[in-house]
Design brief:
With 75 residues, the chain is mostly helical. It is built from three helices and no strands. The termini are far apart.
């Protein structure tokens, strides 16, 4: 496990407790856990933007440049 033994892990936990306080640590860990879970869920769910049809739909409207009235060149 990354070469970390019990003394190193205890030091890390102690520093976290000193920085954030005992009341904030559960909230912090809960938030990190929710973030990891949503990331994993997002990686497992195929979305419409990853399919070729979804890419074509999304890119059509945004890639077309509309010329503005002031950008016409004079001949």
């Amino acid at each position: 496990m990354f070469g970390l033994r019990l003394p190193e892990l205890l030091l890390i936990v102690l520093v976290i407790l000193l920085l954030f306080g005992a009341r904030k640590v559960p909230e912090l860990m809960r938030g990190i856990g929710k973030g990891i879970k949503s990331f994993k869920d997002g990686m497992n769910e195929p979305s419409s933007s990853t399919t070729p049809e979804g890419l074509n739909k999304d890119s059509r409207g945004s890639s077309e440049a509309t010329p503005s009235e002031g950008s016409a060149t004079k001949e």
